[in-house]
Design goal:
By secondary structure, the protein is an alpha+beta fold. It is built from eight helices and 16 strands. Among the domains are: 84 residues, Double Stranded RNA Binding Domain (2-Layer Sandwich), CATH 3.30.160; 96 residues, no CATH class. The strands form four sheets. Strands 6, 7, 8, 9, 15 and 16 form a six-stranded antiparallel β-sheet that branches. The protein has a five-stranded mixed β-sheet with strand order 13-12-11-10-14, sandwiched between helices. One of its GO terms (cellular component) is ribosome.
Length: 382
């Protein structure tokens, strides 16, 4: 596959930031679909009444989830989002990287982070004498070589004759792709920030509390359009700005209506507050459409059991109602510069540099990474 030259300057698209136009990205990734086993792409937007674009990419022979999802303010962006998620998961199912077998104690001096600060499995018994399979990684800021436990990222759900003690919690948190490596890193780090913020809001963190957003003050045109779609469909929207330990705008959107009285959530983080809010709103719509479609492997029974039950009351933050224009927002036009800014904020907050596993395959050329931010929390919300 021909890999386009690396770019760092952004093409600003409504509701998102990218380094190339969506039309160009689509033509670039189309040849990859057969290789990763994507056999069909479904537009499920109008299974719901909202009209926010939601697509699904289906991989029948997946080793984990067979349905990947994408959302966006346009059908093309949603289609690309679904396909890129499918590509990411395919790479994480079968990482083509050399592995190292060593104990935690043997690896600890050269890691540059504390393994206990990673996402640990429930009832784990991690200690320095545990023998672990490690994959090569590097720090985002300096490129210093390090390693990450393979158990943290390999999404191979096939039945195996071997057994490993549960030490780390495998998930897709931080797994991301992009037009360039920097773009993939940004997507991955923002996802880690989202999950960290929602866990801290739910279980406590630095004592600060969420603030309810006054949606009438939102001045970003693309976000206003999205909010109007909810309004026309009769869907209620409530948004909170979540405290972020890395000082990145992060929003938690909840939607529900009388016709489908179930709460659905979306979370978004980005230095550009309009992009963060757009991501939260479109993800909430995606969550609802996914439940209606019923084709996601990991959906479970919860959305259906709670149908007909009024949404649980949320704490009132009326006294803290937040003006959207007061949210600190930074729009950076260069992805490399944005990576440096985000990395600096994470390092200053956690004391550990974010690291990443480069899952990109030379014969495919689509940048795929797993971003790992030791010290940031995670809960399996998705």
């Amino acid at each position: 596959m021909l890999v386009p030259a690396a770019r760092t300057k952004k093409v600003i698209v409504e509701g998102t930031h990218r380094t190339r136009a969506p039309e160009e990205t689509w033509e670039w990734i189309k040849p990859v679909l057969p290789r990763v086993g994507i056999t069909r792409i479904a537009d499920v937007t109008w299974l719901d009444t909202i009209g926010i674009s939601v697509y699904q990419a289906i991989r029948p022979n997946s080793w984990s989830l067979s349905v990947s999802q994408g959302k966006g303010v346009t059908p093309l962006l949603a289609r690309i989002s679904a396909v890129m998620e499918g590509i990411e998961v395919w790479h994480a199912e079968r990482p083509a990287l050399p592995s190292t077998e060593a104990t935690v104690g043997e690896m600890r001096p050269g890691l540059g982070y504390d393994p206990e600060e990673l996402t640990l499995a429930e009832r784990h018994f991690l200690h320095d004498d545990c023998r672990v399979t490690w994959l090569p990684a590097q720090s985002v800021d300096t490129g210093t070589p390090t390693h990450v436990p393979a158990q943290l990222l390999v999404l191979d759900g096939r039945v195996s004759r071997t057994w490993e003690p549960p030490l780390f919690y495998p998930s897709s948190n931080g797994l991301a792709s992009g037009n360039t490596l920097d773009e993939a890193l940004l997507h991955g780090m923002y996802e880690v920030i989202e999950r960290d913020a929602i866990v801290r809001a739910a279980f406590g963190g630095d004592g600060s509390r969420p603030q309810k957003l006054d949606l009438s003050t939102v001045d970003a045109p693309s976000v206003r359009t999205t909010l109007e779609l909810f309004g026309v469909a009769g869907v209620n929207v409530s948004v909170r700005r979540l405290p972020s330990q890395v000082a990145v705008p992060t929003f938690d959107a909840i939607i529900w209506d009388d016709a489908l009285p179930v709460s659905f959530r979306g979370i978004g983080s980005h230095l550009d507050a309009a992009v963060a809010l757009s991501r939260a709103l479109t993800e909430a719509a995606q969550s609802r459409t996914t439940a209606i479609a019923g084709s996601r492997d990991d959906l479970g029974k919860k959305p259906y059991r709670s149908t007909g039950t009024p949404p649980a009351a949320r704490p009132s933050y009326e006294s803290d109602r937040l003006d959207f224009t007061a949210v600190e927002s930074v729009r950076i036009s260069d992805t490399a510069e944005e990576v440096r800014e985000l990395t600096s904020r994470i390092l200053n907050s956690t004391g550990a540099p974010p690291v990443y596993v480069n899952l990109t395959r030379d014969d495919m050329g689509v940048p795929v990474v797993l971003a790992v931010c030791p010290g940031m929390r995670y809960k399996a919300l998705h």
